[in-house]
């Protein structure tokens, strides 16, 4: 049992390392396959021992082995976050099709989160293929019905589209497409609840940032990461949250 836990965690680290490549290269319209991994400062091609997730960062004290340039903490953070969320997904769904599909969605959410935090964009190259692929997957597996996946795309995206129109730019179209992608996997009900959870968390964090003068009231705070957080909460604890809410209504 523990051997599977370790395997899933290591797999998450490896995939997280690849996600770092996507996060860095996709916004700059660079190939995520070629050239191989290299230092962004000195352009030296990295060896295998330079690419060991987390450990290479620790052993080199967060610096390039060849030019001594500081390496962003984003790299081990993404690797560890991916590994941890994959492990929790395994604990929740075991080795099942749900585990594979939800882990795939989580990986895309991580990419969208870090790109949105840095560039305040959510790439169409992630959301459009994601919507199509996840919808097609609904034809072959029972994690969601075809109807629920289609409604998740249309109604979840439509819900945020209305907010985007009413707010006149307060909500980005990238967020709309991200919600549609999430809806194709977990359906409209879970997606909308996840958006509300993300909004609540986002409001709290925004108030804290404003309170400490880190952000101004007029500063735009990316909403994509909060959609991602709410989605992950619903993937792992959606049934628990809904049952808890229904129990409250029963009183």
From TrEMBL:
Source lineage: Bacteria, Bacillati, Bacillota, Clostridia, Halanaerobiales
GO molecular function, one term: methyltransferase activity
Protein location: Cell inner membrane; Cell membrane
Protein name: Prepilin leader peptidase/N-methyltransferase
EC number(s) on file: 2.1.1.-, 3.4.23.43
Functional description taken from the UniProt entry: Plays an essential role in type IV pili and type II pseudopili formation by proteolytically removing the leader sequence from substrate proteins and subsequently monomethylating the alpha-amino group of the newly exposed N-terminal phenylalanine.
UniProt xrefs under PANTHER family: PREPILIN LEADER PEPTIDASE_N-METHYLTRANSFERASE-RELATED, TYPE 4 PREPILIN-LIKE PROTEINS LEADER PEPTIDE-PROCESSING ENZYME
Domain Prepilin type IV endopeptidase peptidase residues, every copy: 105-207
């Amino acid at each position: 049992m523990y051997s599977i836990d370790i395997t899933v965690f290591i797999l998450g680290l490896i995939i997280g390392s690849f996600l770092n490549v996507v996060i860095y290269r996709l916004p700059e319209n660079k190939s995520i396959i070629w050239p191989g991994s290299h230092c962004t400062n000195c352009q030296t091609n990295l060896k295998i021992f330079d690419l060991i997730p987390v450990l290479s960062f620790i052993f080199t004290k967060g610096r390039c082995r060849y030019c001594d340039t500081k390496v962003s903490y984003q790299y081990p953070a993404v690797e560890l976050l991916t590994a941890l969320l994959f492990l929790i997904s395994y604990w929740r769904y075991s080795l099942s099709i749900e585990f594979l599909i939800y882990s795939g969605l989580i990986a895309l959410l991580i990419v969208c989160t870090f790109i949105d935090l840095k560039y305040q964009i959510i790439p169409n190259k992630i959301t459009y293929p994601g919507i199509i692929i996840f919808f097609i997957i609904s034809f072959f597996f029972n994690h969601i019905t075809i109807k629920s996946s289609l409604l998740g795309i249309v109604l979840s995206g439509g819900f945020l589209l209305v907010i985007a129109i009413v707010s006149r730019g307060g909500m980005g179209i990238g967020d709309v497409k991200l919600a549609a992608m999430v809806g194709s996997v977990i359906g409209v009900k879970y997606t909308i609840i996840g958006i509300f959870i993300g909004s609540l968390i986002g409001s709290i964090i925004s108030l804290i940032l404003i309170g400490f003068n880190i952000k101004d009231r007029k500063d735009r705070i990316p909403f994509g990461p909060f959609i991602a957080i709410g989605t992950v909460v619903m993937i792992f604890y959606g049934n628990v949250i809904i049952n808890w809410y229904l129990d409250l209504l029963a009183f």
